[in-house]
Design brief:
469 residues; 4 domains; elongated; 0% strand
């Protein structure tokens, strides 16, 4: 290769570099060392100039040296460019590249172009403190970036979040969780909808991909991760904010058969309140096997109270013959779903066969009856017949447990059924002893129990005596 040929190659390379977008040029600067780019052309140039100088000075050189110099001039740019392409494609981050990468993220946000950033994230899925610092990580989890990249089918930021070492880098890990979870629950097509639909319906033919299932297991079904990093908190807060804003009040206090339907796509599958309730229920369901800490059962109470506070009674809506009599409005559907979930959790914990309810069992029962006592105070807003319909499940399960206790051959205090029976009865006494309104609702609920059930028929008199009814 001659000097003219080398400079032709250089000119073409510069022209191609100029044609790339600013975002792409920045990635080249990040991952390809400047010294390598300079060496690609400076070394061959020096070799070719040396050949010309030798000829001008009248020196003769061996045939092999001429061949070597030509090979260097030809092969070095090819090898150098190949290495540069490899380094650019590999896109390996490091602390020495941190400032350049941070500047690159800032440019991506300003220009609203995230293709190259997505490629870099995919190549560096398992970030560590050796690759990135906290300030850069905050840029990476900027709201705009997360909204653009955390989507089907890659879920890039959720994949980053599944890397536990990420929380050792960030100075404020809660903000990272907050941004990602809020983005997920606010989307109309996210992994959360598919996860909930896979268990509770509402999105026909929806199926989790292998990647999504893996992310669900690491983030939502791993209780250490879910509780320690408070995955539930931003979901709860977002759902609460939507309720408190009042924007759902008119829609969720009207008849809406689409919300409760099972076939096709239900309206509830895009409801952040429903999504949070079911995600947290599934976490508590997994917690039954552990039961060694506070699993924030109170989250269900928080959302239950807010939903109840926004219920508005409209006789034409509630008594509409064309509407679903059990779930006249979406808000009522949510209230009943929470109460149903608390009963199921109580039964699952009871059926686990532990000698005592444990911390989790006590929390579930306490929150369940707290919800019942709260809705019992709304008799001026909600028809009493609906309130008693919501509360009978608690008394029915208590009598069922009492029936098992009476059949227990040992019949001793301290047995599983005795502890559960005492726990549920104590909650009733604690919250209703000094509240005549709750006592009246309680009396109506107990009278409404199905006396055809053996455990009700045998034990309802005992319950009435215990409660002084």
């Amino acid at each position: 290769m001659s000097i003219d040929g080398l400079f032709t190659v250089l000119a073409i390379t510069i022209a191609l570099f100029a044609l790339t977008q600013p975002i792409q040029r920045k990635t080249i600067i990040i991952f390809v060392p400047i010294w390598l780019l300079l060496a690609i052309f400076l070394v061959p140039t020096c070799v070719l100039i040396w050949r010309e100088i030798v000829s001008v000075l009248g020196y003769e050189y061996y045939l092999w040296s001429d061949l070597v110099s030509r090979l260097i001039a030809i092969l070095l740019p090819i090898i150098g460019l190949s290495i540069s392409i490899y380094l650019w494609n590999r896109a390996k981050l490091g602390r020495n590249k941190d400032l350049k990468f941070r500047d690159f993220i800032h440019t991506s946000i300003n220009e609203d172009k995230y293709g190259e950033l997505a490629r870099i994230i995919r190549k560096n899925q398992y970030l560590s403190s050796k690759q990135i610092v906290s300030d850069t990580l905050d840029f990476l989890f900027d709201q705009k970036v997360v909204e653009s990249l955390n989507r089907f089918p890659t879920w890039l930021h959720l994949r980053l979040l599944a890397n536990e070492s990420l929380f050792n880098i960030s100075k404020n890990p809660c903000s990272i969780v907050n941004v990602v979870m809020r983005t997920l629950i606010s989307k109309k097509a996210s992994i959360l909808q598919s996860y909930v639909a896979s268990r509770f319906g509402g999105l026909e033919y929806s199926k989790l991909t292998e990647l999504e299932q893996d992310l669900i297991e690491k983030i939502f079904e791993d209780l250490h991760y879910y509780i320690d990093f408070r995955i539930d908190y931003p979901l709860l807060i977002y759902a609460s904010e939507r309720i408190d804003s009042g924007e759902l009040d008119i829609k969720y206090n009207k008849n809406d058969d689409l919300y409760i339907k099972m076939q096709g796509q239900s309206g509830r599958i895009n409801c952040p309140i429903f999504l949070f309730i079911k995600i947290h229920y599934l976490a508590l369901e997994n917690a039954i096997e552990i039961d060694d800490k506070d699993f924030y059962v109170s989250d269900l109470w928080d959302i239950f109270r807010k939903v109840c506070d926004h219920i508005m009674y409209d006789r034409f809506v509630w008594e509409n013959p064309k509407a679903n009599s059990e779930f006249p409005t979406p808000y009522i559907y949510l209230v009943k779903e929470i109460l149903k979930d608390l009963r199921i959790l109580t039964e699952k914990k009871l059926n686990k066969g532990t000698n005592t309810p444990g911390r989790l069992g006590e929390d579930i029962v306490r929150i369940w009856y707290t919800c019942i006592s709260y809705i019992s105070r709304l008799e001026k807003i909600i028809p009493i017949s609906f309130i008693t319909n919501c509360t009978t499940d608690y008394y029915d399960l208590l009598l069922e447990i009492r029936g098992h206790y009476n059949k227990d051959e040992t019949n001793k205090k301290g047995s599983t059924f005795s502890d559960w029976s005492d726990l549920m009865l104590d909650e009733i006494k604690y919250l209703s002893n000094h509240n005549n309104k709750i006592k009246e609702i309680m009396r109506l609920s107990i009278n409404q129990l199905d006396k055809g059930k053996h455990h009700v028929f045998k034990n309802v008199k005992w319950l009435s005596q215990e409660l002084g009814l």
